[in-house]
Design a protein that fits this description.
Elements lengths: L4 E5 L6 H15 L5 E6 L4 H7 L5 E5 L16 H6 L4 E4 L2 H6 L4 H13 L3 E6 L3 H5 L3 H12 L5 H4 L3 E4 L13 H18 L2 H6 L1 E5 L7 H5 L6 E4 L8 H5 L4
Parallel strand pairs: 1-2, 1-8, 2-3, 3-4, 4-5, 5-6, 6-7, 7-8
């Protein structure tokens, strides 16, 4: 059985002071959860959040990483920096990074390889636009994203990666893919991984759903055979995030 993983993606929210306050609110509420719990926080919050969650069941994640170890890349943050700061997970290829900061499938692949090199678990995002869904090319599009992202990644490495399926049209819109739509795509991703590697790798890898996940729909989504948790945006900034984490309570 794959252990569920529920990650909060804070995006560009929370000052260092606010981040510590949120951690203090959520720590007792998520204690004892059956799922792995991850807070993916802005770079400036990494150090204070690391201190705030010490000794809890919460793991620390970053929202981005660059694919070089160091150099003249003003404003970027490297895998060695994240590792040294105690980061365990990193979000790679979120649709907002692709749309606003010109990330491509190729740079996602480079970042994925770099995170793995330093023992940081990547949460690799994929997803389709509303136009792509309406044109009936959702699975074709996502298979392409996955195949390029996992280029030169070994089967053993792939087993440690988390994949987050986020339909772009459902991010922050209040629209949610139906349970059937979410399960169909997550199942399609698992089949794609089996084609790239083998059934054992496909059965091991964890696949999240993201896109307007909240306390009322989490249990139904996470009950699906191919959905292993969620990547949660806005709802992760509130005390109600604990209801998503403890969806089966």
């Amino acid at each position: 059985m794959r252990k569920k993983i529920i990650a909060g993606n804070w995006k560009m929210n929370m000052t260092p002071t606010e981040s510590v306050a949120l951690c203090e609110t959520l720590k007792p509420l998520v204690a004892g959860a059956d799922a792995d719990v991850v807070f993916c926080v802005p770079a400036i919050d990494i150090i204070p959040v690391k201190e705030a969650i010490k000794g809890t069941n919460i793991s620390l994640g970053a929202e981005n990483v660059y694919f070089e170890d160091k150099g003249a890349f003003t404003g970027e943050i490297s895998a060695p920096m994240l590792k040294d700061a105690g980061v365990e997970y990193v979000v790679i290829g979120h649709s907002e990074r692709r749309e606003y900061f010109a990330e491509t499938d190729e740079t996602v692949n480079k970042k994925l390889l770099k995170a793995l090199e330093y023992g940081i678990i990547p949460i690799v995002c994929c997803g389709e636009s509303l136009t792509q869904r309406e044109q009936g090319i959702t699975l074709d599009w996502i298979r392409m994203q996955i195949k390029i992202a996992f280029q030169n990644v070994t089967a053993d490495q792939a087993k440690t990666v988390v994949i987050a399926y986020e339909p772009i049209w459902a991010i922050g819109t209040g629209k949610v893919a139906t349970t059937e739509q979410a399960e169909e795509v997550c199942g399609g991703i698992r089949k794609c991984i089996a084609e790239i590697y083998d059934e054992a790798t496909a059965e091991t890898i964890r696949i999240q759903y993201g896109g307007s996940v909240n306390a009322s729909n989490a249990a139904e989504l996470f009950a699906q055979p191919d959905i292993d948790g969620g990547l949660v945006g806005g709802a992760s900034l509130k005390a109600d995030f604990s209801k998503i984490v403890k969806y089966n309570a």
